[in-house]
Every structure is written in C-alpha cells, then in structure tokens.
Write a structure and sequence with these properties.
alpha/beta; eight-stranded parallel β-sheet; about 5% strand
Length: about 425
C-alpha cells in the first residue's frame, strides 16, 4: 500500500508541475515580456510540493495533538484511575451487576473488558447481537474513560462469533486457500460483525510458526514458515484494522514449538537465539514494520535463550529488551490470561501483574472479579511505594493505551 501511495503521489506532483509550467508560460505570453515573476521548473515543482505537504504535516500535527491530549487526561487522573487503565477484565455469566463488571467499570475504572464464550457471556438472552450491542453500550455509558471491549476472534477453533454467525475458517484453512485475500476478507468481515456487537478490539491474529507435530495450537496457525505466517496474518490484521477494529499479534515470542498446553503448565522452548530469530521472531520483525499492529500479546512460555528464569510476559529481557528494544515496538503490549496454570502455579495474580508491568507490559489481562482487581491495584500501589515501579512508568503505559483509544476513535481526538 505504501509503495502504491508513493507512486500515486509522485504522479500527482508530476501532473501539477506540468500544469504549473503551462500556466506560467501562458501568463508570460499574455504579458508580452519575460517576467521575472515567472517560475522556473524547479521553483514551480518546489511550490507544488510545498502545497502538497500539509497532508503529512497534518498527520504529524494530529499525532502531537493526541499526545498533548493524552498527557492532559493523565494529569487529571487519580492513581486509581491510572492503574485501572492497565487492567482488562473478564466477567462470569450474563448479569452486568451481579457479575461485578459494573463495579469494576464504575468504581475501579478498569480500562476494558473481554467477552469470553467460555465464561458464558453469550448465552441466552445474550445470544442475540442486539442484546450484546446494548450491553456494550451500557458499559460505555458507565465508564469514566471509554473502554477497550475485546474478544479473541480467530475463526476455526477460537470462534467467539460462532453463536451469531456459525462456523468460520481457521488460520490453517485461510492459508490453505493460497490467496491472502481470503484472510483479508475474513478479517474485514469479523471487524464488521464485532462492531455490530460493540466490540472494538480483537486479540488476533495468531503469528506462531507451526514447527512441532502434533501442534498444541492445532489449526490456529497460518503455516510452518515465517513468511507465510506474516503474509496471511498480515492480511487478516489489515482486514481488522482498516475497518476500525484493533488487532493484536499473539503469542509473543511464539508458541509454535511448544509440546505442552500453557493452560496446564509452563511450556519451555529450547531453541537457540539464532533459531528464534530465524523462526519464531521473524513474523514480528516483518509485521511490526510493515503492518503496524495496534497491540501485541505476550505469553507464558519459557525460552531460556531469551530469559532462563522468567516466562516471556513477566520478563523485562523479553518485553523491554527484545520486543521494545531490538524489534522496535512501542505500541500496547497486553499479557495473556495471567490465571493460566503456567503462571498461577508459581505466582499469584497480583504478583504476576506487578511483574508484567515491571517487564514493560501495558495491559494486564485476567482478573474477573472486583476483589481480584482490588488485589492487583493494591499490589501495584505497593510496588510504586517501594520504588519497584515509577510513576513515569505507569504514565507511559497509560499514555500508550489512551493514544490507542484515540487512534481507533474509542476516545475523542
């Protein structure tokens, strides 16, 4: 797309330069003299190019305006409101009040919530699109800061929209079509359907590279080589993001070589760093530069070549060092569910939450009751008081989250 836009831009400049020269020549002929005011070809081109620059300048000005607006919002937030932005919750059942979701939104200021089919969120009467849309709208009305409302819609085995739209192709099936347009169309269709439900963020696509058989993730991966994964995941991501829904690459740094389920324990991938760079990290290298993912999900996998002690989502070596430092990603990083057994066997939810923020993450995913949110907030406050986390670090994450919400028209500007 960028190459095409540049070509169109150059063509427009060329045509306008020609018109400018023609007009300048006509003016000189009418006056009957070689006027000093007549532009040379270089001057005319320069004037036209300058006239076309405001589009880029406007984009830069908008970015600066958004940053200024985010900083102003942050300056007016209490500590509780800031910490709430760092938490994306789940809820059990369908009742807004009894589930505790209303309290988490109105009194604990959480930054968003996630619809989960496994939490029975889409059971009757919320098996109808209009009911879910009304639920989403109610949460937005109650929120002090507009919410991220997420699900993880991949298609295939992870098809949160099945209740409303039936079976949909998996990543494996999309790639088997041989046509990235299929993935693009599926992403675009998913975006349309999610917006009908009031959902503005999709924790997809999966960019793990299938390298072990049988794969634990089964048909959730687009392929066994990084370029195929980047091509088809990139198309699905474009379908989402170009249609106004936040996309999220997962599961960083990669689950394509795991041999155990991370829901049931902490998997270990003993690749060399060279192999990780060549295989698991390759789609991220490509897509961070090419596709500009709005979010990236870190996950609970131990990769000794990156960090021999901590799972990736709790590791500063993995997040601040590798993802942000080496791969250059400065967008929003969200954890995988911190209740999964690979984490919960060793750390409490509140301990893991603190470690995730210390590591460079922005959003904690996993609490599903007000008491759990309260525990996380208390733990984060203690970490600040003890000097383990600075207020600058908190504000950095809040700013990233607010800018994301502005970019996708969830928050004004």
């Amino acid at each position: 797309m960028q190459r095409k836009n540049k070509s169109v831009y150059n063509h427009i400049v060329y045509v306008l330069c020609c018109l400018a020269l023609l007009v300048a020549g006509c003016g000189a002929q009418r006056s009957g003299v070689a006027s000093h005011a007549t532009a040379t070809p270089t001057q005319a081109a320069t004037k036209i190019v300058v006239a076309l620059q405001p589009t880029e300048s406007a984009e830069e000005a908008l970015a600066q305006q958004r940053i200024a607006s985010a900083k102003k919002i942050i300056a007016g937030m209490s500590l509780e409101q800031k910490l709430g932005q760092l938490i994306l919750v789940e809820y059990l059942g369908q009742d807004y009040q009894d589930s505790g979701l209303q309290e988490m939104i109105t009194q604990q200021f959480v930054g968003g919530f996630m619809y989960q089919e496994s939490n029975h969120n889409f059971e009757a009467p919320y098996n109808k699109a209009d009911k879910v849309r009304a639920f989403s709208q109610q949460t937005m009305r109650d929120a002090r800061t507009p919410l991220l409302i997420a699900t993880d819609q991949e298609g295939g085995l992870v098809n949160r929209l099945r209740t409303f739209h039936g079976d949909l192709p998996s990543a494996e099936e999309m790639a088997a079509s041989g046509d990235p347009q299929v993935a693009l169309q599926q992403g675009a269709q998913a975006a349309e359907w999610m917006q009908e439900l009031g959902i503005n963020a999709d924790l997809a696509p999966v960019v793990d590279v299938h390298t072990v058989n049988p794969p634990v993730l089964e048909s959730r991966m687009f392929g066994s080589d990084p370029q195929t994964v980047a091509t088809y995941a990139g198309a699905y991501l474009e379908g989402l993001q170009s249609n106004g829904v936040i996309a999220c690459l997962k599961h960083f740094p990669g689950l394509g070589a795991i041999s155990s389920d991370p829901h049931e324990g902490l998997p270990t991938v003993k690749r060399s760093m060279a192999d990780l760079e060549k295989i698991d990290l390759a789609p991220y290298k490509i897509m961070i530069q090419q596709d500009h993912p709005a979010m990236i999900m870190s996950t609970d996998v131990l990769m000794p070549a990156i960090d021999p002690d901590l799972p990736a989502e709790l590791s500063a070596k993995a997040i601040d060092g590798l993802l942000r430092g080496e791969l250059g990603y400065d967008g929003v990083v969200i954890t995988d569910g911190l209740y999964m057994q690979g984490i919960s066997d060793r750390w409490s939810l509140s301990e893991a939450s603190v470690m995730a923020i210390e590591a460079g993450g922005d959003i904690i995913e996993g609490p599903y009751t007000p008491s759990q949110v309260a525990e996380v907030v208390v733990a984060l406050k203690q970490a600040i008081q003890q000097g383990h986390i600075t207020m600058q670090r908190i504000d950095q994450s809040v700013q990233r989250i607010l800018l994301l919400k502005m970019q996708y028209n969830i928050l004004g500007l």
